[in-house]
Design brief:
Radius of gyration: 21 Å
CATH architecture of the largest domain: 2-Layer Sandwich
Oligomer: single chain
Structural class: alpha/beta
Number of helices: 9
Largest sheet: 10 strands, mixed
Strand content: 25-35%
Domain GFO/IDH/MocA-like oxidoreductase: 130-239
GO molecular function: nucleotide binding
Order of helices and strands: EHEEHEHEHEHEHEEEEEEHEHHEE
Domain Gfo/Idh/MocA-like oxidoreductase N-terminal: 8-121
CATH superfamily of the largest domain: Dihydrodipicolinate Reductase, domain 2
Organism: Streptomyces adustus
InterPro entries: Gfo/Idh/MocA-like_OxRdtase_N, Gfo/Idh/MocA_Oxidoreductases, GFO_IDH_MocA-like_dom, NAD(P)-bd_dom_sf
Distance between the termini: 49 Å
Helix content: 25-40%
């Protein structure tokens, strides 16, 4: 589809994320929000006037061009397959599925039918990370040495079906590959479960990208401090992105000569100037919806594809495998193998 007609869009799920999707869909230019599926009804009055339906089949019967899938992760594959079989494009919340096999089946279902499908890795639309990515692509940092992320905060009671790796760490896995333009080649991790749930609620992971860049992820649901921190260190300094505030700063390596004897012998880098960038701060979810709408219309749009979302699920599975048996997982583009 390459015309500029108004698209008909639906939504599956009115949970905490689905309510935000409903708000954005209701005001999205070039889109009619025609219906939402939630068997629990609209408990929070979030449907924005759209009819609330019981089944995905009822939504499909309304003649939608695409649907946003924001139901629990364990239902993504079932709902996604229903949409694909009906010829409906889909924006599926992250992670794309709760298993690697399920994610791969979704890729096949949508690609084989030539349907546009994407994954809602919202950090790709964060203003700070979009600016950081552009600056890395322009070579402003020189060689990249390390990416460090910290994503921590209190336990979100909305989550019941997955642990912190699939719910939160998938953000950091995806944004690291997207920002740097590189692939993971290895990952090793430790997890703990302290909240009495069946799933892990803290993970620490160390990885390596295909250009040698070192990666560190610290993610948990056990901290009273809410933090969303990404740093990229390289040849010319360090970028720091705070995705809670959408701020990006750059700390440069010092170029000033020193006469202090203790520092003259120093062979590393030293603290230089700090720049805080002025960035237009549009809502990431609105940007995500605009990009997906444009993709459905056949316009160039940088969305997270199902294949990219599946790669993130594969790496998350490797994180859990590593934590289970203490191994380092070596990854290639097609499969994951384990080595001690």
């Amino acid at each position: 589809m390459t015309d500029a007609r108004t698209l008909r869009a639906g939504l599956v799920g009115l949970g905490s994320m689905g309510r935000h999707h409903a708000r954005v869909l209701a005001g999205l230019e070039g889109v009619d929000f025609v219906g939402v599926v939630d068997p629990m009804g609209d408990k929070f009055g979030a449907a924005q006037g759209a009819p609330v339906l019981d089944t995905v089949e009822q939504l499909i019967a309304l003649g939608v061009d695409y649907a946003v899938v924001a139901c629990p992760t364990g239902l993504h594959e079932t709902v996604g397959m229903q949409l694909a079989e009906a010829g409906v494009c889909a924006l599926i919340e992250k992670p794309v599925a709760d298993t690697v096999e399920g994610a791969r089946r979704l890729v096949e279902a949508f690609e084989s039918r030539g349907l546009v499908a994407g994954v809602g890795h919202i950090e790709r639309c964060n203003p700070a990370l979009r600016s950081l990515r552009a600056r890395l692509e322009a070579g402003e940092l020189g060689d990249v040495y390390q990416v460090v992320t910290r994503r921590q905060g209190p336990f979100p009671h909305r989550i019941a079906d997955v642990g912190v790796v699939k719910d939160l760490a998938t953000h950091d896995i995806d944004l690291t590959g997207w920002v740097t333009g590189r692939e993971y080649v290895s990952i090793a991790a430790h997890t703990v479960s302290k909240s009495g749930r069946a799933h892990e609620d803290m993970v620490s992971a160390v990885g390596r990208l295909d250009d040698g860049t070192m990666v560190n992820h610290l993610v948990n649901w056990l901290s009273p401090l809410k933090e969303r921190f990404t740093s990229v260190t390289g040849e010319r300094g360090c970028f720091i992105a705070d995705t809670l505030t959408a701020d990006l700063t750059f700390h440069s390596n010092a170029a000033m000569a020193t006469e202090w004897e203790a520092l003259q012998a120093f062979r590393g880098v030293s603290e230089g100037d700090m720049i805080r960038y002025a960035i237009p701060k549009r809502e990431p979810l609105l940007v995500e919806h605009e990009l997906f709408r444009d993709a459905v219309l056949g316009k160039p749009a940088d969305i997270c594809t199902l294949r990219q979302g599946t790669r993130t699920v594969e790496i998350a599975a490797a994180v859990l495998e590593s934590a289970l048996d203490g191994s380092t997982i070596l990854l290639d583009r097609d499969s994951a193998t384990t080595t001690v």
